[in-house]
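As promised in the previous annual report, we have extended the structural survey to additional targets. Below is the entry for DNA-deoxyinosine glycosylase.
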Amino acid sequence: MQLQTIVHTIPPLYNSESRVLLLGSIPSPKSREVGFFYGHPQNRFWRVLAAVLGEEVPVSIEDKRAMCLRHHVALWDTIAKCDIAGASDTSIRNAEPNDIGRLLRESKITRIFATGGKSAQLYCKLIEPKTGVPITQLPSTSPANAAWSLERLIEAYRVIL
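The corresponding structure token record, generated without further manual editing, is:
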């Protein structure tokens, strides 16, 4: 698969009361198509987050947005622009970071978690030197991460509470 330049177009989900930030790498083709985070139906992110927060799994984008804000959880991605083949994080080249500092200034975010290895790696390289806020890497909820069962993912994500 050929590299394609992708520009992040989904705005961050947060408000002034957000306390925890979950960062992916960059939206997948399916997420870009639906216009919201973790849009692929096989991605376990929404099932994991709902279980951790003690909520029903949200279906609509509005329900997903409301659940996150109700629990002071912000969502965005580490990368603003990059070259990538499909949804393959391992293919990412020429990554340019999102302005995470702005979210930190406009909210009460004190803890940041990466929803996968590439997000954590690029955050450490491109963003942490500017913000000084460390990141904790969580396992990917992608179906490609088959080594992690839904139950193990839920347990790992409980650290956000």
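The radius of gyration is 15 Å. The longest strand covers residues 88-97. These points will be discussed at the next consortium meeting with the crystallography subgroup.
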